[in-house]
Automatic annotation (TrEMBL):
Organism: Urochloa decumbens
Similarity field: Belongs to the peptidase A1 family.
Residue pairs linked by disulfide bridges in the UniProt entry: 114-120, 421-458
The organism's taxonomic lineage, starting at the top: Eukaryota, Viridiplantae, Streptophyta, Embryophyta, Tracheophyta
Keywords: Aspartyl protease, Disulfide bond, Glycoprotein, Hydrolase, Protease, Signal, Vacuole, Zymogen
Ranges where the Peptidase A1 domain occurs: 83-499
InterPro entries in alphabetical order: Aspartic_peptidase_A1 (IPR001461), Aspartic_peptidase_AS (IPR001969), PEPTIDASE_A1 (IPR033121), Peptidase_aspartic_dom_sf (IPR021109), Phytepsin (IPR033869), SapB_1 (IPR007856), SapB_2 (IPR008138), Saposin-like (IPR011001)
Signal peptide: 1-23
CC terms in the record's Gene Ontology section: vacuole
Domain Saposin B-type: 313-353, 372-413
Name of the featured protein: Aspartic proteinase
């Protein structure tokens, strides 16, 4: 199998941030944070952190003062891949930089009792003995990630978020951080903004505590992520309301369909106004401020990469399926065979009643020799691609050539695909269908630029990430999408709202 990898330097580039405070005319305190342009020397560090987030969420994680109108938390933009801001824990407050992550629900920071992890010594550590509002809990916990663990114990203390003091918040003091993500990360910890259903140890997420303590006027929080590489402000997180300066028009709301992550039902992805087919009947999606790019089914990402000229890994298995079985797939689809059963009839998959799975009858040796899982997956993708082309009445030759080209656009194992920076203006708009409305992303919005020594490398904002049924297919709408669309997380009505960012 041929591979084409982006050559990246592995050294870590430290970003410096200066805090500027000023009072605003509307009575809200804002903190402007400087940010640096995305540098390709730091992309390796950011990529590790992003991959760790995906593994945590869907791969290796074992997660089982009076009212205020609204509260603004300023966000720093880390490499256009992470947005983080300052909170305080304890009395007097001990400051920490945390990622505000809608894809998890726990608050954790390094503990002063963390003695054997390098990550703890490179970041701020919470010292319970220096806080007069600290309350001992002591319940131990471990969260297992795809490439490491976080272990520690629960404590309770006051947490300062913007101007709000959340009393007796249950959080984790980490005593062991084995993942390299937390060594190289610019942040000290994570403040989870997901639902309590995915919170370790039953700790309430910070927004739930705010609601119970009547600290906010409205049961919402909202994100504005600034994607302007030259702007000093990274963004804002507002608790209890929205800042009208950061969006245009009105928000379109969709109900949360599954609590835990902020999950909702999404429709088709359009490329230049044309359906990609795979999610035409609906897909699940989550909005995740802790994921930098847009992650979705490989079948669609390959179509996107083909449309924008992105170069990824050349899949031998995919091209072999098209070469050996392409005509048969066309014939079966013309004969109105159910698309879910085509690969079963060919013999590459087994139909379990709802969808195709790789053939379980083959011996281990045969599976290793043939790579049956890969052939089944390649066949399923080819069926979708060919079905789309048949709808447009393309000839057999054009259909097979198209499918073969998509095989060449399959993304690399790490998910990245590069594009020609000079061709951005010629790339098509892409659009997600949400609540029967289209949310368009221009090439300038879905292409991420990395710079080094005056040179620029452009990365597709789409990466492949397959979640199997029944949870998937699933889209993860990360910072690329949230940067284009101001996002409201309404936990009072259990809904999510999107409006164009201003």
């Amino acid at each position: 199998m041929g591979q084409k990898h982006l050559v990246l330097l592995t050294c870590f580039w430290v970003l410096s941030c200066a805090l500027l405070l000023h009072a605003s005319s509307d009575g809200l305190q804002r903190i402007n944070l400087n940010k640096k342009r995305l540098n390709k020397n730091a992309w390796t560090a950011a990529k590790v952190a992003r991959q760790e987030n995906h593994l945590r969420r869907f791969g290796g994680s074992q997660q089982s003062l009076g009212a205020s109108s609204d509260d603004i938390v300023p966000l720093d933009n880390y490499l256009d891949t992470m947005y983080f801001g300052e909170i305080g824990i304890g009395t007097p407050a001990q400051n920490f930089s945390v990622i505000f992550d809608t894809g998890s629900s726990n608050l954790w920071v390094p503990s002063s009792k963390c003695y054997f992890s390098i990550a703890c010594y490179l970041h701020h550590r919470y010292k319970s003995a220096k806080s007069r509002t600290y309350k001992k809990n002591g319940e131990t916990c471990t969260i297992t990630y795809g490439s490491g663990q976080i272990a520690g114990f629960f404590s309770e203390d006051n947490v300062l978020v913007g101007d709000l003091v959340v009393k007796n918040q249950k959080f984790i003091e980490t005593t062991r951080e084995t993942s390299p993500t937390f060594i190289i990360g610019k942040f000290d910890g994570i403040l989870g903004l997901g639902y309590p259903e995915i919170s370790v140890g039953g700790a309430p997420p910070i927004w739930q505590s705010m609601k119970e303590q009547k600290l906010i006027a409205k049961d919402v929080f909202s994100f504005w992520l600034n994607r302007d590489p030259d702007a000093s402000a990274g963004g804002e997180l507002v608790f209890g309301g929205v800042d009208p300066k950061h969006y245009k028009g009105s928000h379109t709301y969709v109900p949360v369909t599954r609590k835990g992550y902020w999950q909702f039902d999404m429709g088709d992805l359009l490329i230049g106004g044309h359906s990609t087919g795979y999610c035409a009947g609906g897909c699940a999606a989550i909005v995740d401020s802790g994921t930098s790019l847009l992650a979705g089914p490989t079948t669609i990402v390959a179509q996107v990469n083909h449309a924008i000229g992105a170069e990824g890994i050349i899949s031998t298995e995919c091209k072999e399926v098209v070469r050996e079985y392409g005509e048969m797939i066309i014939q079966l689809l013309i004969a109105e065979t159910s698309p879910q059963k085509v690969c079963t009839q060919i013999g590459l998959c087994v139909f379990d009643g709802t969808h195709s799975v790789s053939n379980p009858i083959e011996s281990v040796v045969e599976k290793q020799k043939r790579g049956s899982d890969l052939f089944c997956t390649a066949c399923e993708m080819a069926v979708v691609w060919i079905q789309n082309q048949l709808r447009e009445n393309k000839t057999k030759e054009l259909i097979l050539n198209y499918a073969n080209q998509l095989c060449e656009r399959l993304p690399s194992p790490n998910g990245e695909s590069t594009v020609d920076c000079h061709q951005i203006s010629k790339m098509p708009n892409l659009a997600f269908t949400i609540a029967n409305k289209t949310f368009t992303l221009t090439p300038e919005q879905y292409i991420v630029k990395l710079e080094q020594a005056g040179q620029t490398i452009c990365i597709s904002g789409f990466m492949a990430f397959d979640i199997p049924p029944p949870r998937g297919p699933l889209w993860i709408l990360g910072d690329v999408f949230m940067g284009a669309y101001h996002t409201v997380f309404d936990f009072g009505e259990n809904r999510i709202g999107f409006a164009k960012s201003a």
